[in-house]
Design brief:
This protein has 257 residues and is an alpha+beta fold. Helix content is 30%, strand content 18%. α1 packs across α6, α3 packs across α5 and α6 crosses α7. The structure holds adenosine-5'-diphosphate and magnesium ion. This is HipA-like kinase domain-containing protein.
């Protein structure tokens, strides 16, 4: 499981995010961006953040360190903002934290070109997890200390909203035409050759073991959290082998028919 931190203080809301993420201080004195289980998007979004974040990290992409952050709803009692009070009240227990990259800038493709190799790795990864949230309107990439960092993997793995149809849905192609890195001639083939062999059953077991049990209980059709962990792993394993042939919308990239 992810390392656990106890939230000691709510600092401020991060107004940019649709999911009302906030900054909190932990009992380790770290500052975390917190995504709350009580936010409208629900806990599947947080599961997706863990699976994708921990997988991306193991594939050598930069992702802020994640933590399971324990929230006591009393933290919200002194908050002047009613929306924040409500959110904290609804989020007792385990929430998702990530290291706050202080001073990070939102990624701007016009100001910071990326080479075809790095663009390829990121587009391939987004295709693997079917990330629909890395567009030029909303890149969910940060520039920090001269490098690109991946954030916000809540809108991925659409198949986890309908497990009986997961296999079919996971076989679908990925449309990269809106991807913020599409203009940089991403070398998806080279990325697949390097990264796909790393996506093994063992690696995915390690990744899904990081998901807190509390977010996996009560899913219809799954008796034990580990059954659901395996359900998360299966489509990713299958997709890793083939998805590079099913990435559409990138100039110069040969598309499989
Ligand atoms: N780890 C982080 N370090 C610094 N800023 C962050 C971090 N995570 C998110 N942010 C900032 O907060 C905003 C919202 O976070 P994001 O994860 O995209 O949430 P949402 O799901 O609400 O879009 C980001 O666009 C970014 O500006
Ligand atoms: Mg976002």
């Amino acid at each position: 499981m992810l390392r656990t931190v106890v939230a000691t203080r709510y600092i401020t809301p991060l107004r940019e995010g649709g999911s009302l993420p906030g900054l909190v201080e932990g009992d380790d004195l770290g500052t975390y961006v917190l995504k709350f289980t009580g936010a409208g998007q629900g806990r599947k979004t947080l599961v997706a953040e863990v699976v994708c974040g921990e997988l991306a990290r193991r594939l050598g992409l930069r992702v802020p360190r994640l933590a399971a952050v324990d929230v006591d709803p009393v933290l919200g009692l002194g908050e002047p903002d009613e929306q924040v009070q409500e959110l904290l009240r609804a989020s007792g227990g385990v929430n998702l934290g990530m290291d706050f990259l202080s001073g990070a800038l939102g990624y701007d493709p016009l100001a910071f070109p990326v080479d075809a190799e790095e663009a390829g790795r990121i587009v391939w990864f987004d295709a693997l997890v079917n990330n629909v949230d890395r567009s030029w309107r909303n890149p969910n990439l940060l520039r920090w200390r001269g490098a690109l960092w991946l954030i916000d993997h809540g809108a991925t793995m659409i198949w986890h909203h309908n497990w009986p149809g997961a296999e079919d849905s996971a076989a679908r192609p990925y449309d990269a035409s809106d991807h913020v890195l599409a203009p940089f001639e991403p070398d998806v083939g080279a990325a697949a050759a390097r990264l796909a062999p790393l996506v093994t059953e063992e690696l995915l077991a390690e990744v899904t073991a990081e998901i807190p049990d509390a977010w996996l209980t009560g899913e219809p059709g799954f008796e034990h959290p580990d059954d659901l962990r395996r359900a998360y792993a299966r489509p990713l394993l299958a997709r890793a082998a083939v998805i590079h042939e099913r990435v559409h919308g990138i100039q110069g990239h040969r598309e499989a028919k």
